[in-house]
Design brief:
Two copies of one chain form a homodimer.
Chain A: E1 6-11, H1 20-28, E2 33-38, H2 53-58, E3 63-66, H3 77-88, E4 92-95, H4 105-114, E5 118-120, E6 139-145, H5 152-165, E7 170-173, H6 177-183, H7 197-204, E8 213-216, H8 228-238, E9 242-247, H9 265-279, E10 284-290, H10 297-311, E11 315-316, H11 324-331
């Protein structure tokens, strides 16, 4: 687990979108974000207290989290100076960058000299077991998608927020870099060795109280030629009681696969349920989550209504409408 | 690729079963097996010429292949003496053991000193791409199973043999350790990083002549809670034109999963076809391959006949009856 609270490092973000990770932490786990550190020219702003490293240390910050994508795939000297200062003054560093902190000799040396941790959350640090398939206690909900990047993490986080508000015991379970940085822990599933994928999800969602829900972040799609195996491992490792199908209606083809049509919500729902029932006979699809960001208010409302009518399942946009009806259906 | 021909190292095999890898090479690629090396007490015999390291060198052997499982998960000092001699005298070593050659400092030093290669075929050495899903030229057949270890490798190898006999251009594509040692190359799929699984199979089965068949070794089962993701990556990366369903009829539960029933041949056939059609609309199930080793001749004949009648597909035991009718159906 990554020590909290965090200082969100926004670097010299060229635009707000580059600071997607920081935005995720700010939106979904604001309590851990003690402040932000921006370099000259930074175009992102989380509306947190701006802090120097010294101020962050004084405020009790434990970890500097790199909340921004780096330009050109390099950790620049400007960044390195700040990161080294953070290590020297007693903070750990956490990063989801493709360029690993551990591949930077200066940072490795500084971390070692000062007894600090470098968390590269893209790389698994746990020796996961082979999945046993044994039924576990507690309940699990998994977000499955028609495609990659259709809102599976957002949906699971929105459900956690809604359920917490209702005092239903629940835990968001991160399976990707951003989710791991938001919560402080999880499984970077796309980097797990094939044989241990399902086992890593069993490890992530262990036995729990009968009324506790794990809300598992989905990855990929059963229909995505590049990543479908990852998705199936999530279903079989997660043993979900409840599935929520996530969809983005304006996409013209599968992400990264120009020759592939996005499947229908119904096709994904049927296939995911078939797969889930192999490991949990009681699995159900409890709702549909749509990312309507590209639609007007009216288009979005019409679309949600039409999908709800077609499938007879509560259909929400977690951002526009909230996921209350999906949680209602899941708890019913 | 592993340099050929091979000297098959049988070590001090406690019984013939321990030399399964050597047996696979002897059965399926005898031309590469120049001889065998047995230590005192060895209970396995491939009926190959017994050779010392010097004799093997004189016979032109390029690689000593460890064809036997090691006892207790240790590479013993007795073994090491032979392996070091092989390196010193100019041979590479190939191994599918869990204990890696590269983790043995003496072997690493000897290989380095003499410019030889240590092939740990359990570990990928290629940086595989993310799968593109782009349709490739040539034809592909994939063995899928109701469970693990039901005869998928054996079936694909038997088909290769049968097709070679008929002068049909074809290549067996190994996806597991034994298959890789038999052919000299392949993808150790169970050890590939999740994101690159399907891509590794695209890499393994590239564009080929229109009439060429890749015969892809299957892994796991879509119904196996521990390994299903690996199987789906094989289907989506392999883009099979033809599927052969493999089954072992006497198994009481899924391998390693006492709580899970083995699915029916029909269920596997339907689901594998659904998955294959996502990436290859023309995919077909062309036959059923049964491992009847645990049955009497009469039981086996009755069983094959009954399955063939139930599914209307050529049904063979690759060992007892050969796979001729499956190849007929595939080529029709």
């Amino acid at each position: 687990m990554i020590a909290q609270p965090y200082l969100l490092f926004l670097g010299d973000a060229p635009d707000p979108l580059a600071a997607k990770v920081a935005q995720g932490i700010k939106d979904w786990n604001p309590a851990v974000a003690a402040g932000q550190l921006r370099l000259p020219g930074c175009k992102a702003d989380m509306k947190l207290t701006d802090m120097t490293i010294d101020e962050a240390v004084a405020a009790g910050v434990k970890t500097l989290v790199i909340g921004v994508a780096n330009r050109g795939g390099l950790i620049s000297d400007t960044w390195k100076a700040v990161l080294k200062e953070a290590l020297e003054k007693g903070m750990d560093i956490a990063s989801g960058l493709h360029n690993l902190l551990r591949d930077e000799p200066e940072l490795v040396a500084a971390a070692k000299a000062h007894g600090r941790e470098l968390h590269d959350v893209r790389i698994p640090t746990v020796k996961y077991p082979i999945a046993s398939g044994v039924k576990r206690k507690g309940k699990r909900c998994l977000a499955v998608g028609t495609d990659c990047s259709v809102g599976k993490m957002y949906t699971a986080l929105a459900m956690e927020k809604e359920m917490a508000k209702r005092s239903i015991p629940c835990t968001f379970r991160a399976t990707g870099q951003t989710g791991i940085l938001i919560t402080g822990g999880g499984v970077p599933l796309d980097a797990v060795i094939a044989d241990f994928m399902a086992g890593s999800i069993e490890w992530l969602t262990p036995d729990a109280a009968d009324d506790h829900w794990d809300l598992i972040e989905g990855q990929g799609s059963l229909f995505h030629a590049s990543y479908s195996g990852v998705t199936l491992a999530l279903i079989h490792g997660g043993q979900p009681d409840a599935l929520v199908v996530c969809h983005e209606p304006t996409r013209e083809h599968m992400r990264g696969l120009p020759d592939y049509q996005v499947p229908s919500i119904g096709a994904v729902s049927d296939l995911a349920l078939t797969m889930a029932k192999m490991v949990n006979a009681g699995a159900k699809v409890v709702g549909i989550s749509i990312n309507t960001a590209a639609m007007s208010d009216e288009e979005a409302a019409d679309y949600l209504k039409a999908v709800e009518a077609e499938y007879g399942l509560p259909t929400c946009d977690p951002f526009r409408t909230g996921v209350g009806p999906i949680v209602d259906a899941m708890m019913a």
